[in-house]
From TrEMBL, chains A, B, C, D, E, F:
Name assigned to this protein: Hydantoin racemase
Family: Belongs to the HyuE racemase family.
Enzyme nomenclature, EC number: 5.1.99.5
Annotated catalysed reactions: D-5-benzylhydantoin = L-5-benzylhydantoin; a D-5-monosubstituted hydantoin = a L-5-monosubstituted hydantoin
Highest rank taxon of the organism: Bacteria
Origin species: Segniliparus rotundus (strain ATCC BAA-972 / CDC 1076 / CIP 108378 / DSM 44985 / JCM 13578)
Amino acid sequence: MTTHIVVMNCNTSEPMTEAIGAHARAAAREGTRISALRPSWGPESAEGNYDSFVTAAAVLDRLHTLDFPFDALVMAGFGEHGREGARELLDVPVIDITEAAAQFAMLLGRSYGVVTTLSRAVGQIEDSLRLAGLFERCAGVVAAELGVLELEEDSAAAAVVAASRAVLDRGAEVLVLGCAGMTRLASALAQQVDVPVVDGVAAAVKLAESLVDLGLTTSKHGSYARPREKRRPGWPISPTPGGQPRQR
Amino acid sequence: MTTHIVVMNCNTSEPMTEAIGAHARAAAREGTRISALRPSWGPESAEGNYDSFVTAAAVLDRLHTLDFPFDALVMAGFGEHGREGARELLDVPVIDITEAAAQFAMLLGRSYGVVTTLSRAVGQIEDSLRLAGLFERCAGVVAAELGVLELEEDSAAAAVVAASRAVLDRGAEVLVLGCAGMTRLASALAQQVDVPVVDGVAAAVKLAESLVDLGLTTSKHGSYARPREKRRPGWPISPTPGGQPRQR
Amino acid sequence: MTTHIVVMNCNTSEPMTEAIGAHARAAAREGTRISALRPSWGPESAEGNYDSFVTAAAVLDRLHTLDFPFDALVMAGFGEHGREGARELLDVPVIDITEAAAQFAMLLGRSYGVVTTLSRAVGQIEDSLRLAGLFERCAGVVAAELGVLELEEDSAAAAVVAASRAVLDRGAEVLVLGCAGMTRLASALAQQVDVPVVDGVAAAVKLAESLVDLGLTTSKHGSYARPREKRRPGWPISPTPGGQPRQR
Amino acid sequence: MTTHIVVMNCNTSEPMTEAIGAHARAAAREGTRISALRPSWGPESAEGNYDSFVTAAAVLDRLHTLDFPFDALVMAGFGEHGREGARELLDVPVIDITEAAAQFAMLLGRSYGVVTTLSRAVGQIEDSLRLAGLFERCAGVVAAELGVLELEEDSAAAAVVAASRAVLDRGAEVLVLGCAGMTRLASALAQQVDVPVVDGVAAAVKLAESLVDLGLTTSKHGSYARPREKRRPGWPISPTPGGQPRQR
Amino acid sequence: MTTHIVVMNCNTSEPMTEAIGAHARAAAREGTRISALRPSWGPESAEGNYDSFVTAAAVLDRLHTLDFPFDALVMAGFGEHGREGARELLDVPVIDITEAAAQFAMLLGRSYGVVTTLSRAVGQIEDSLRLAGLFERCAGVVAAELGVLELEEDSAAAAVVAASRAVLDRGAEVLVLGCAGMTRLASALAQQVDVPVVDGVAAAVKLAESLVDLGLTTSKHGSYARPREKRRPGWPISPTPGGQPRQR
Amino acid sequence: MTTHIVVMNCNTSEPMTEAIGAHARAAAREGTRISALRPSWGPESAEGNYDSFVTAAAVLDRLHTLDFPFDALVMAGFGEHGREGARELLDVPVIDITEAAAQFAMLLGRSYGVVTTLSRAVGQIEDSLRLAGLFERCAGVVAAELGVLELEEDSAAAAVVAASRAVLDRGAEVLVLGCAGMTRLASALAQQVDVPVVDGVAAAVKLAESLVDLGLTTSKHGSYARPREKRRPGWPISPTPGGQPRQR
């Protein structure tokens, strides 16, 4: 039976959404279907808390429009807000690429380092890992000082390699790519630094497949219980026929 | 000179917004003007992460419509998301009532306890305090098992007193009211438990006045730098003439 | 291409090894081959640090006898010592079921609880999770007060359910089975407690498949570099023709 | 009604006491009366634990001589011992400038740094913040390597600026002045480093005013219960007519 | 050669000082000389932070009067303030009985519990252990709800046994007596609870002997550098001919 | 009466065992007898987790052959595994030199640093200290990048001094020698760096003497209860007439 995974970009950039989808498909096994989606409103790139909180709501809004059955959700914004909200709304597993990347990295070395885009995001990523309970083995988060959309430029690779070396010097034994837009740099990076390089999108797809295989779903006991029924004027933003996401 | 403080409710309930405003005014000194506002869309009460992430964006959206000069923002949702985003968007001080209440409590006793509404919110409040760096002296967060809108009912007081006693048994020496809607119960509670009871709205108003008096504003160096200029299709949601909040 | 996973029981009980193997095969996808093995010497069950350190060396000894190519190692002793040693010896991924179970549980709820056999093992399991950097979201480790070999008895189920309820009362939202011998109780347990129940053997098999799929291997930079060449008189204990494990 | 705040220097330097008083008055609002006092014995400057423990007792001794009604106590020794003792002795709020500065700083940036006098005090300040539960967001404590009494010299400003830059490099987003004697350097410093600079004396005065306004007093439940009645031969040291501080 | 250890009671009770001295002598080996001393002013018992800060200065004051050569100082107030100050003043080893007891306990079990006098002291003891870096393996501090001077009463034993059982229930595997006045109850307690019972005075005497044997002294590099020379009007309180303690 | 301490080297190098024995004897007081032993199989030096887990079992195996009464066990492998297993097997005190060195260091300065051999061992030593609850005051673990057996070479001293300076720069106030083989360098090192230098073997011998003097033994309540009786085919490895260690 096909496993259908929704991979949700947090920003509204269509090229980035397509790239994330292609990358997710490359990681998926035979029999997994990937739907790479993006919110219908919000920033073209998430760089900081302001953007991140906007994307969190935009992603929740988009989830309400999903009118097809799916088995798992991958949230493809590294260090971005919102995963706990999606876990309330959905019963199927919700995998944040931040958590996925950190988990895989922790299996491969005693400590890991994150290479991200801008230094303004360093604290936000640390907080995301801390709340996920995955920060203790993090040797550092280092910024390449590139905007998300500058990652496409030719000079990006050198900046990412330099940042990677900086975090290895702090004791990291495995590298985590701290932005879904960095994926295309992964293999070149791994060759230059000679440590495993973990990409969160790929890791999250594998975790989604795994949890679906084992029949595991989100706990509805406690923090992630379904949202209470109540009046929410003007919400969701987008026109949503059925109103609720249609999970399998 | 008048200090103008915007007190922003996170939910869309007008009666609760008015109550919060009245309470903020009671705490303000002479010469402080309070504007109690609420988002133009979103849930009538925030109870859990799903609601909370929606309110975070709704509050940011509402901030874009502020077309009058103001000196500080009080975010009046206890344990709710979004404060870091508002701190990026604004230069004036942004005071989260969660932080304000915890800070005042920590000055009055060695440890404090939080009484909140529903147990589903306990983890979220703990995380909010943890990210604020104010969790270490928290003896516990205990739920009275009342929905936000049930706080108005007569039986609410007894449930809140019972929850307060439970958190004192865990070692709390000061109580924090973990919901802006609990304010009207504060004085009755203080009489029954004989420890200081801190209300976040009042504390936040005093902190806002204090920071304005000292001329202190949000650091724009690092995490709370202004949002980058970029395309954000469909955002803000609400029609906003000027587009940017007009701070003093 | 077939993925070949060695699932290594830590004790010398043949029935338990067979049961672990059957369970691993049930979790594996098509195309995965499971070899369930056990050490050639050591305790029939590991219950405490003394046993655990003996099994750690016995497992390393057994690894030296593996004369066939394999792609990943699953270490099937919950809370037992030795994973870091195996990660030095091998290049292929090494998955400890303790880590695997905790990781999956953390994706499904905000906190998890572990149900284990004897209270003497509680501290050891906590330490294993702490060193893995996965303890922060653990709400507690509770013992059913059953020896490993008593898990086969009819009365075991009731004791495990009671311990599970105790750890849910401490705030756990997901349950982790803290012993490879508990697997057969999993589905009955899940029905009674209505939260996800994660079994480490199944989780570890899925993680092994995933890491192999992505071509990720153990970092040889830092803590898990290969053991230095040196004289080790009398070691390995077991006669080992080739001397080194033959990984793919 | 006038709010009367006692601002207690920890050392016996009269010029420093006067400077602290002037600074407190500049921060106070209209209607606040400041009494700047100092102990009647002890070191002229507190630089290290030995001095600090002497000043802690000297301050407690001095409190026994206060024969006028007052509303709050500000303890104006940064990182110095004794606040918990004063909180037992008094019912009115007791504000330590260490805590006050850290709290205000944490509202203005994600992390703060402290600039202090001598490196021998770094550990002591860290401990003071740790015990106050306010250390987690501290990016570092850096010494300008100036004695307390050398802060008056012309060269002091450059050393303080250099230390400030060092702590910003460690990730601080807000600066805290780690010595009551540094106040006169604050505005020059803020211009040079372009981040908010928080002075503990000013912050503590505002917090004292705020707590008095809200009618909040020290919890007498638990750690800060009044000292037990007992024989204390030779104590207090100073002749004290009434024997107990006369709070409002 | 004789090792001369000064054992300093923190309070001014002569009977308690004598009892502490007798106990220290019972723990000392042949060739160790014990001088049991007490401050010349201050409370007859230390119960809370107010008392504790007074005793800290009184002990430092008393150290200035020591006009004979000695090899080590034992500070015999459990959980009391001042050890860091004595370490600055002296070059010889300074052993706090709080630290000594916790260290010995941690060698004998995975976790330890403290039984103390009054619940008001619980937080203070936790802080003392936390600052000493010895709190992590502490399973709890439990009060018998007896004043220091009530420990002599017949009913004290039962209260101490009950508190001991409470802390064993929290997971402690070793007991620490949290008051120098509890020593006479130690052997009866050990019989009843069947776990090791560690007394801080005895432990500190052995550590003092050990450090002296190995020629180890307090580091003068950093936090415990000697106090700076400066004016300290009115200090020390007690008439001190030589002015400085005369260590060997 | 004679106190008989077994000092167990973790590796099989006879010269190193003899050196450790000589050093232990130099630290022992009159009336203490030292038996310096080594395992009968295993690596000649322990450098990393693989070696360390082998030595843990080899040490446990060797303990089974002890057919003479002894009063305490010193485990002389710095940062090596196995102490918890020995504590289960034995009733007499078991002192790990890692713990002993850290404890003594923490009495002499506010923080300590460890100088060790290879950087691959840094994480392992940190974990050993963390599990012992003694890591919080550790300013760092720095490697001299020398193999254990290279410590005998003339150039070793310079590398150890350089590493010591590096860890002092990180804030250490006391040095700990992170390898039993470094002992001969201790006095030269102390002269060059002017801070106390603590050697774990000497510290452990003093702690063993102290615990024996006070009649304190390992808690058998909880984690260190005796190993359960059970079948352990092929274990112990070495021929053991009596089968159990013969403690006094």
